Amino acid sequence: MTKVFDSVTNDIYIVQTSDHRVTKCSSDGKQTVIAGITGVSGASADKLSFPQGVFVDEESKDIFVADTGNDRIQKWFRHTKKGSTVDHLFGPRSLIKDKNNIFYMVNRNNHIVCASSPDISFISDE
User: Fold this and answer.
1) Nearest-angstrom CA–CA distance, 77 and 99
2) Per-residue pLDDT tens over the stretch 77-95
3) Which residues lie below 8 Å from residue 106, measured CB to CB, with a gap of 6+?
4) pTM of the entire structure?
5) What does the domain layout of the chain look like in residue ranges?
6) Which CATH superfamily is domain 2-116 in?
7) 3-state secondary structure 60-104
């Protein structure tokens, strides 16, 4: 299980790998599934398969998920039910963005860390 804390909103984002979802726990204690479908693994835009990592954009609150079972990075826009593929990696595990908007993604199965430009573009919008 991976957890990310948003210091601006005091929300906690939790990757629940075996449940194929990401949940948000608000500061008021409310839990909401914000990516994936509980207990359902899949490759369609509304599903995840064994996700491993999450990054929350501080400004937009969009989330990026290392969807390990599908070998992709999915971007879920705030308040949407489907993600869009922004990159394909063989076994992505975690990701982070630096102050220059460069994404760094761990590509575990290829034993490398990948970097992307600030204008990360969509590969597909399933």
Assistant:
1) 20
2) 988 999 999 888 888 988 8
3) 53, 66, 92, 93, 94, 95, 113
4) 0.86
5) 2-116
6) TolB, C-terminal domain (2.120.10.30)
7) CCCEEEEEHHHCEEEEECCCCCCCEEEEECCCEEEEEECCCCCEE
